[in-house]
Amino acid sequence: MIAAAILLLALLLPSLPLGEWRAFLLDTAQFAFLTSALALAWDLLARSGQLSLAHGAFFGLGAYAAALSAPALGTLPALLAGGLVAALASFLLGLATLRLHGMYFAIATLAFSEVMRTLVLKAQFTGGSIGLPVQPAFSGAFPLGSYYLAVAVLALSAGVSLLLSRGRWHYAMAATRQGEAVARVLGVPVVRVKLLTFGLSAFLGGLVGGVYAMKTLFLSPYDAFGLGRAVEALVVPIFGGLYTTSGPLLGGLIIVGLETWLRLRIGEGYLVIYGLVLILAILFLPRGLVGLFRKGVGRA
Amino acid sequence: MLRVEGLSKRFGGIVAAYGVNLEVHPGEILGVIGPNGAGKSTLLNLLSGLLRPDAGRIEFLGEEITQAPPEVRTWKGLGRAFQIVQPFPEMSVWENLMVGALYGKPGTGLKQAQRVVEEVIALTGLAPKAQTPAGELTLLEDKRLELARALATRPKLLLLDEVMAGLRPAEALEAVELIRRIRASGVTVVFIEHLMPVVQALADRVVVMDYGQVIALGHYDEVAANPRVREAYLGRAR
Amino acid sequence: MELLLQTLINGVLAAGIYALVASGLALAVGVVGIVNFAHGEFTMLGAFIAYLLFVGSGLDPLVSLGLAALVLFLVGSLTYYGLIRPVLGAPELNQMLLTFGLSVALQNLALLLFGANTRVVSPPYQGSTIHLLGLSFGVVPFASFVLSVVLLGGLYWFLGRTRLGLAVRAVAQNRLAPGLLGIEKERIYLLAFGLSAALAGVAGVMLSVILYASPTVGFAYTLKAFAIIVMAGLGNLGGVVPAAVALALAEALVSTYLPGGGGWVEAVFFLVIFATLTWRSWRAA
Given A170, A278, B52, C180, which residue has the most CB atoms within 10 angstroms? Predict the structure, then answer.
C-alpha cells in the first residue's frame, strides 16, 4: 500500500506543477529514492541475520563499474555490470564471513569496505583520489533519464523486498536469522540462503551506486565508498522498521528530507542526524516507524 | 537403519566420545542413558551433523553421512529435537512448523507444507496455539513445538534430546504416549533421557554411556542389572 | 639496517598509544560487555580538549592530560548512565548499533562545531628530537610512549593489586559474580566505562601533539583498537600490549618499505582485522 503510493507519486512528480522549486525537489526526491533503495537492499541482507557495514562498498563498486563501463556498453548494460561486480564482491566476502555473527560480521564487513576504498584510491584506472568524471545516463538524451532510473531501481528493490517477505524465502531467511543451527537441522540450506541474499542485496546496492554515478556525474572514493553510505543504509531501515518493505521506503524519504533541511541550515555535520536518529530509534522505537502502526508481533 | 562405527570426538583434552559402535534397527525405540557428562548429547550432535567426528563412520539407510552437513542429513530423513528448546522467537507456532515442513524435504511446495503442518499440529495438540508467537509459550508447549518441528521434517529416524526434562509427571506421561504414537506412525526413535521410569516404559533397547564410551547395550532389565552400569550411576561420586 | 632499526623503533613508539586506546576498549568489552563503537570518538574528544586548552589558555598538553582524563571519565560515566545502561539487557546488536549511532553523532557534532580542519597542538618542544647511537626519535613520540607505559603499568597495578581492581576483574570474569550486589556491580560497570573513556581521552591528548585533532581522527582508532583486542583474544587484557606492538610494527614496516607507502597503511590494518576475524571463525569450527 505505502509502497505503491510512494512509487506512484515518484512517477507523477515530474509532471506536477512544482514551480520554481521543481529542479531542487526532483533532485532531492531522486537522492531520497536512491537512499531508500539502498536501505531496502541492506534490509534484505539483515533479514538473514547479517548486519552489514559493507553496503558503502557495494554502492561504490557498482558506481565505479558502471561509470567505467558505460562508454563501451551503454547505460543499461553498464548498470547491470555494476550490479554484477558488486554481487561478485559480496559473494567472496560472504564466503569469508559465513561463520561470523553479530558484531564480528559487522566489523569484518566494515574492514572489507575500507580495504576496497583504499584499492580504488590507489588504482590508476579509477582516477584515484582525483576522482572520475561520469557520462550522464543515455548520453544525456533525456533530461529526466537518471530520475526515472532511480525510480526504476527503487521499484525493483521494493518489488524484490516484497517478494521475499512471503513464501519460501521469507521462512528461510527468518529462520536463518533467528537460529542458524536449528534452521540447519530443520533442513534450511543456510549457506545458500546467506550467500544468495548477500549477492542479491549487493547487486541491488551496486545498481543504486550506478544510477547515483550517472546522476552526480562525478565520483570520488571518499564519496562513493564513504562510511556515510553504509550508515545511511542501516539507519534508514532501523528507523523505518526492520524486515519490512514500507519501513525503509518511508524511512528513506523522511530521513533524506530531514537531512536536506539540515544541510541547508547548518552545512557540514548534517550527518549528525543519522547518529541521533539511530540512538533514538534504538532507545524508543524498537520496531521502527511502521511498528507504531502495527499491533501484535510484526512479521517474523 | 543407522550404523555407527568407532565414532570419536575430543574437545581439547576431554574425550566426549570414544570408539562408539551402535546399530539402530528400523522401527525400534532406543534409549540412551548415562551420568551427566557421559557424552550423550555429543553423540546426538555427531549424529545430526552439528559436530564433525575426529574418527569413525556414520551410515544412515546404507549411505555414509559422516561428513554430511546437518541439512543434508535432515533431507535424508534424520530428524532432531533439541534439549534446550530453541523456537524461532519472532515466528508464530504455525510459522515455526512451516520452516520444518518446507525445508525438511527438498521440493516441498507451500500447499503440501501446510498440510504437513496441519497433521503435525493435530498430532501434538498444538492447534489452539497455532497463531501464538513462539516466544510466549509455556515450557510444555515449547517442548511440544520442538517435537512437532522435528516431525514436520518428516523424519524416518528421530533423535530426541531429553524432551521430558522439566515436565511434571502427568505431562511426561503424555509425552510418552506421544512418542509411542510417533513410533506407531513408522518413525524410528533414539532418545536421551534421565528419568528412568520413562526409559523403562518406552525403550525397546537401552544404550548406557560413560566417559564417552558405550558400556552396556540391551533390554532395560539386563542393562539395569549390569554391574558396570550400577557402578557408573552409584559407585562413584561425581 | 639503520632504516630497519629506525622503522622498528617508530613502530614500538606508536604502539604505546595503540595499547592505551585498546586497553580502554578491552575494559569496556571485558567488564561491561559492550563493544563501544564510539571509543575512538572519546579519543577525538581528548584531542580537542587538549587543543582548546592550548589555544585558549596556553595550557601545556602535559597538564591537559589530567584534565582530559577527568572530563572523559565524566563523559564516559554519563554515556553509561544515559545510553548504555538502558540497553544492557537488549540484544547485542542493539548495543552495537547504539554506540555506532553515538559515534556518528559525536563525529558530526565535532564537525559542526570545529569544521573538518586538522588542528595541531604545538608546544615549543614539539619538533625536538633525541639522537642516540646514530638513531633519532622525536621527543613527543618518545615521551608519549613512556607515559603510555606508565599509565598501563598503573592500570595493571590497579586491576591486579587493589581491592576495587580485583572486584572489576571479578565482574569481568563472571557477569553474575555471586556475592556482588546489583548496586556494586552497577558501580563497577560505571567505573570501568568511565576508565575506558578516560584512557581513550588521554591517548587523544597525545594524538593532538603527535598527529592532530580533527572530527574523524578517532574513528580509525576504534577499529585499530578493535583489531588489537581481537588479536589479543576478546576480554584478555594481558594480550593487548603484545598485539598492539605487533600491529604498530606491521604498520611501520608497511609505510617504510611498501612503495607508495603511507596510503596503504590503513588498508593493511583493515586487512589484518578482516583476516584475524575470519581466520578465527574458521579455526574455531
Answer: A278
ipTM: 0.89
Phi–psi pair at B216, nearest 5 degrees:
-160, 150
Q: What is the pLDDT of residues A151-165, one digit of tens each?
A: 999 999 999 999 999
Q: How close C279 comes to chain A (CA, Å)?
A: 9
Q: Residue C270 and residue A268: Cβ atoms within 8 Å?
A: no
From CA C102, how far away is CA C109, in angstroms rounded? Answer: 10
Residue extents of the structural domains in chain C: 16-218
CATH no. of A2-11+30-291: 1.10.3470
Instruction: Give partners of C (≥3 CB pairs < 8 A).
Output: A
- Give the model confidence (pLDDT) of B14-68 as tens digits: 888 999 999 999 999 999 999 888 889 899 999 999 999 999 999 999 999 999 9
Query: Residue ranges of the domains in chain A?
Result: 2-11+30-291
> Residue B57: exposed, middle, or buried by beta-carbon count in 10 A (0-12, 13-18, 19+)?
middle
Contact C214, C117 (CB under 8 A): yes
d(CA B72, nearest CA chain A) in Å: 7
Q: Per the CB < 8 Å rule, is A122 touching C264?
A: yes
Cβ atoms of A82 and A63 within 8 Å: the answer is: yes
pTM of the predicted protein model: 0.90
Strand-strand pairing, B55-60 and B2-11: antiparallel
Residue A125, burial from CB neighbour count under 10 angstroms (0-12, 13-18, 19+): exposed
User: What would the mean pLDDT of B77-103 be, rounded to a whole number?
Assistant: 92
Run of H or E including A104: helix A102-122
User: Which tens digits make up the pLDDT trace of C171-212?
Assistant: 877 655 555 566 678 888 999 999 999 999 999 999 999 888
Q: Domain B2-77+155-235 belongs to what architecture? A: 3-Layer(aba) Sandwich (3.40)
